[in-house]
Amino acid sequence: MPVPNSKSVAVIGAGPGGLIAARKLLKSGFAVTIYEKGPRVGGLWDRESLINPDMQANFSIFTVSFSDLAWESIEMGTPPAFPKAWMVEAYLNEYANRYIPDSCFQFNTKVVRAERVKPTLGQGKTWKLTTSSKKHIEEHVSTFDYIVIASGYLSTPKPLPCTLSPRLLENPPIPIIHSTQCRNISQLMPGISTRSSVPQKVLVIGGSHSGSEITTSLALQASNFHYSPSLPSVHTTDIEIIHITPHQMFASPCFPRDYMSPTCTFEPFEYKVFDRATRPQEPLTHEFGLTNPQENAGMKMLMQTVVNGSVDSETLRNDLPPYGVVSETYNQFVQDERIRVIVGQVKSLNLQDQNTKAHAHSTVTATVLDQNGQTIELEGITAIVNATGFNSADSLSFLSSTIKADLGFDPDSARLPLILDASYLSQRSNVPDIAVLGFTGVNWGVMEMQARAISRRWSGEPIPEDAETCKAVAQQIVQFRHAIKENRRSEIPQVLFGDYIGLMESGAQDMRLRRVNGAFGEFEGMVCPARYIDSPSSSSSDDDDDDDKAEAEKMMKLLQTVQHRARTEGLYLARAVFLGLQGRWTSPTDPDHEEWTFHPRLPTRRGFEMEYLAIGDGINQDADSDSNSDSDSRTVFRYDEVHDQISAWTVDPDDALSAQSLAFTLKFDRATEPSACSARVVRGESGGMLVDEEMVYTFGFKGCWLDGFRMQKEMGDGAMHVVEFVRPGEDDGVVVEDGEVDALEGVGNKAVVQMIDLPSLKLES
C-alpha cells in the first residue's frame, strides 16, 4: 500500500488523462478526488460522449494503453490490433476498477470555479474548488494542495469556419450537423424513401482524422444503402459525398508494408513510425520546431511513396506540409469515385432559391477556394457535416482570468491555448502547483510520462529539467502561435510537438524508469508505454511493482509475437488483400472474365469485420465449371480479423443480396516475393475443409495497395488456366516496376534520406 503524504489533489476529468494522473498520484500516497461531469469514466471514449462507439482508434492497442495494464487482461476476448471506441471505454473501466478506489470519484459533478487561496502562516490548502452536482442543489466548496486539469482538449465542437446565409443559421431546411453527432447516413436524408430517386449530395468540411473518418463511414454506408439485404428494399437514391479538406491528406492504412522485410509483409504502422532504430544509438532529447518547404517536400514524397509505391508530381506543387491520417479505406473510396476530394477552404454556404415550398428539395450552394486559388461553386448540397474539430476554451472556463494569465492563456490560439513548458508539456514552470494533461499531445504514453513527472515533482523528487529547456519550449510555443495567426502554413507541422520517440526516451532517462525490452535490443523496436515502467519507490509496495512489470511484459510479448507472426507466418496478408479488392477489376487476358466490382457493405453475419458483395459481368466463379450465364455472377466475400481469413460465400438464388453457403476460404502462405503473396483455395464446410492444391491465387502490390491478382488452375489435361485481373485501364498485367522509395529517417525536424529497393514483380499468363 502507498504511504500517505497528507497532500491532496483534485483531478478534473475521468478520461485517460485523469485516470493515469490519479493512478500515479495514488501510488505516491496523495489523497485524490476525481471530478467528472459525466456519469462514468471514459471522457471522450464514453459511449454517450462525442465519439461514435464504433469508430476505430487511429492508433493500435500498443499505443492506446498504459504500461501497467495489458489489453489481454481485459475480459473481451482477443483484442483487435486497432480497437473500436467502445473497447477503449472498456479498457478505461477496467483500469479504474483495478487501480482507483470508488471513493475517489465524484461523478455527475462539474467544477464551476477553481481559485487560488493564500495559506495561513504557510499552512493550509492553496486551491479552492467550487462544484455543482445533480445530487445537490447548492454548490459545494473543497480545498486542495494541487490541481490536475484533464478535462479534455477536444471538448467543444468548432462552428463552421465560413459565412452562412441567415436561414442556415436560424432554421436550416437541410441537415447541418457536427461529425460527433453523425452516426448514420439516414440522419442526412430525412424524409427520403427507400425508392426515392432524388440525388443526395453530402458535403463534409474538415481534414485530419475526424474528416477522413466520417467521410469513409458515410461512403461505406452509402454503398451499404444499395447493396445490403438488411434494408427493406433496394435503394435507388444516388448519394455523392464531397470532402473539403484544407490540407493535402495522405491516408495510410493501419497495416502498411514493411519495406525492410525481404518478403511481402504488413504490420501495424507504429512499428515503423515509432521504431527506436530510426534514431541514433545514444540518449535522445525531445526535439521540436517549425518546418520548411524542403522538409515538407521530403515528407510528402516519403508518405506517398510508402503508401502508393510512387510519387505524383502534383504532390509537390506547393510548399505546405503533408497531413497524414490513418484510414484503411479512404484511398479506395476516393479511387472508386465514391468520395470526391477538394483541397481548399469553404468560404460561404448559401441557400439556393427554390421554386418549391417543400424543404426536402431545398439545397445549398457552397463556394470553395481551392489550393490553386480558383473558386468552385458546388450546387445542390443536401446535407452538411462539420468535421472541423474542437475548441479547448470550455475545458478551462472554470479558471479565473488571473490563473489563465499565469498559464499564458491565449483565447485566440485554439491549438496552443496555454504555455506548458515543463513536466513534458504539462506544466508551466512558474506555476508549480497546477498541471494540465492532454493539451499538448494526447498520446497515452505522453500522458503517462506527464503524470509521472507531476507526481514526482509534488512528492519532492527532482527531475533534471533546467530553466533553459523550459525557456526554449515556451519560446517555441510563442513561435507556433505567431505562425498560426499569420497563416504561415508552410511552417506549421501537423503535430506541433510530434517527437514522440524523443519525448518518451528523454522522460525515461530523466526519471530513471525501468525498461521492458523483451526480445528487442535497447535501441530497436517500437516505442510504446509498456517499454517503460516505474522504478520501485518507498511509497509503493513490491507486489504493486511486480504486478506492473508483469502487465508490461505481457503487452510487450504480444507486440513482439504479432511482429514475428507478420514476418514469418504472413499475418495480415489476408487483410491487406481484402482491403485492396474494393472497387472495379477487369481481365485483359480472358474474354470470359470481363469485370468484377467489389462493393463494400456492413457485415451481414456476426464474426466478420468487413464484407463485399462482388458482382461480376461475364464472370465464371469456378475455373473448371462448364456453366456460363449471361446474367451477372455474385459472390459475398468476408474478412475475419480474429483468424486473419478471407472467405467466399455463394449468393441465395432467391435473394441476389444475401449470402447462402460457404464456397471456399483462402489459405495464405508466407510470402516469398518482396511485393507479392499467394493463397490456396480451401473448399468445403468446417470439419471437412480440403485444400485445392491445383488452384492458386497470386496477389501483387504496389506500395500498400493491391495492384492486381491472378487465378491459376491446373486443368485435368495438365494445361494451366490463368486469368489476370487489373484495374480498368491497366492492360499490361500485374506489374510492380523497379523503383526506389525515399524513406525519411526522422532526427528531430531533420530528414535523412534512406534508399530502399523495391524489386520488380511481373505476373504474366
TrEMBL record:
Keywords: FAD, Flavoprotein, Oxidoreductase. GO terms for molecular function: flavin adenine dinucleotide binding; N,N-dimethylaniline monooxygenase activity; NADP binding. This is Uncharacterized protein. InterPro entries: FAD/NAD-bd_sf, Flavin_mOase-like, FMO-like. Belongs to the FMO family. It comes from Lophiostoma macrostomum CBS 122681. It comes from the Eukaryota. The lineage of its organism: Eukaryota, Fungi, Dikarya, Ascomycota, Pezizomycotina.
